[in-house]
Amino acid sequence: MPSLGRLHLITDTRPGRDPLTVVRAALAVARTDLVVQVRVEDSATDREAYDLALRVLALCAPYGASCLVNDRLHVALAVDAAGGHVGADDLPVAAARRVLGPTGVLGATARAPQTAAEAVAVGANYLGVGPCHATSTKSGLPDPIGPAGVRAVSGAVDVPVIAIGGVTAARVPALLAAGAYGVAVVGAISGAADPSRATAELLGALTC
Ligand SMILES: Cc1ncc(COP(=O)(O)OP(=O)(O)O)c(N)n1
Ligand SMILES: Cc1nc(C(=O)O)sc1CCOP(=O)(O)O
Ligand SMILES: [Mg+2]
């Protein structure tokens, strides 16, 4: 797998959001350090996901930034994205690996050491671990696991751990100290008054 960026921006496609403007602003600051994960609402059509992924890929290409597609691996393949991300309601990790082939980047959600190790054993290249803190971006999540939960998972695997859920620049140092390799965010960038500045602050915290 090519080296994974440490800052993952997940697209915010909730009504009233402007994901492409936010992606543009983040890319201009983070460039090749950014991974953009295209995540659409469950109610979105495959065509909508495909169109957004194509547009995100076109924005990423000049910067050499990677684009991953959440859940819909056929969309990832169709647009020639770097890979995809799956969780408990998506294809099992082993099946996702078969779909993506041996070289695609495959992320899996893991909240505990055992599921983390199992996901890596069957083909995950990185793990999304959380929710680290409370978040209003996604409902129905279990209680936050905090840096201690990240530490438990990162100690059980030898792939990059990407901390997710309520991540802010101020919370990055504790997550890195707990063994996280990077972070994934929605609100910290998409909800910021100045997404470029928020990106710079997150990058600064990640590279301290
Ligand atoms: C980096 C990262 N980590 C976790 C998730 C969550 O994936 P999942 O559990 O499948 O939930 P949805 O995002 O599909 O609602 C993620 N997308 N990215
Ligand atoms: C999509 C998603 N998955 C999570 C998980 O813990 O699996 S938390 C989350 C939302 C992250 O958004 P924000 O950065 O605004 O908290
Ligand atoms: Mg999913």
From TrEMBL:
<dbReference type="InterPro" id="IPR034291">
    <property type="entry name" value="TMP_synthase"/>
</dbReference>
<keyword id="KW-0784">Thiamine biosynthesis</keyword>
<feature type="binding site">
    <location>
        <position position="109"/>
    </location>
    <ligand>
        <name>4-amino-2-methyl-5-(diphosphooxymethyl)pyrimidine</name>
    </ligand>
</feature>
<dbReference type="InterPro" id="IPR022998">
    <property type="entry name" value="ThiamineP_synth_TenI"/>
</dbReference>
<keyword id="KW-0479">Metal-binding</keyword>
<keyword id="KW-0460">Magnesium</keyword>
<dbReference type="Pfam" id="PF02581">
    <property type="entry name" value="TMP-TENI"/>
</dbReference>
<comment type="pathway">
    <text>Cofactor biosynthesis; thiamine diphosphate biosynthesis; thiamine phosphate from 4-amino-2-methyl-5-diphosphomethylpyrimidine and 4-methyl-5-(2-phosphoethyl)-thiazole: step 1/1.</text>
</comment>
<dbReference type="GO" id="GO:0004789">
    <property type="term" value="F:thiamine-phosphate diphosphorylase activity"/>
</dbReference>
<feature type="binding site">
    <location>
        <begin position="135"/>
        <end position="137"/>
    </location>
    <ligand>
        <name>2-[(2R,5Z)-2-carboxy-4-methylthiazol-5(2H)-ylidene]ethyl phosphate</name>
    </ligand>
</feature>
<feature type="domain" description="Thiamine phosphate synthase/TenI">
    <location>
        <begin position="7"/>
        <end position="189"/>
    </location>
</feature>
<feature type="binding site">
    <location>
        <position position="70"/>
    </location>
    <ligand>
        <name>4-amino-2-methyl-5-(diphosphooxymethyl)pyrimidine</name>
    </ligand>
</feature>
<feature type="binding site">
    <location>
        <position position="71"/>
    </location>
    <ligand>
        <name>Mg(2+)</name>
    </ligand>
</feature>
<dbReference type="InterPro" id="IPR013785">
    <property type="entry name" value="Aldolase_TIM"/>
</dbReference>
<comment type="function">
    <text>Condenses 4-methyl-5-(beta-hydroxyethyl)thiazole monophosphate (THZ-P) and 2-methyl-4-amino-5-hydroxymethyl pyrimidine pyrophosphate (HMP-PP) to form thiamine monophosphate (TMP).</text>
</comment>
<dbReference type="InterPro" id="IPR036206">
    <property type="entry name" value="ThiamineP_synth_sf"/>
</dbReference>
<feature type="binding site">
    <location>
        <position position="166"/>
    </location>
    <ligand>
        <name>2-[(2R,5Z)-2-carboxy-4-methylthiazol-5(2H)-ylidene]ethyl phosphate</name>
    </ligand>
</feature>
<keyword id="KW-0808">Transferase</keyword>
<feature type="binding site">
    <location>
        <begin position="37"/>
        <end position="41"/>
    </location>
    <ligand>
        <name>4-amino-2-methyl-5-(diphosphooxymethyl)pyrimidine</name>
    </ligand>
</feature>
<feature type="binding site">
    <location>
        <position position="90"/>
    </location>
    <ligand>
        <name>Mg(2+)</name>
    </ligand>
</feature>
<feature type="binding site">
    <location>
        <position position="138"/>
    </location>
    <ligand>
        <name>4-amino-2-methyl-5-(diphosphooxymethyl)pyrimidine</name>
    </ligand>
</feature>
<comment type="similarity">
    <text>Belongs to the thiamine-phosphate synthase family.</text>
</comment>
<protein>
    <recommendedName>
        <fullName>Thiamine-phosphate synthase</fullName>
        <ecNumber>2.5.1.3</ecNumber>
    </recommendedName>
</protein>
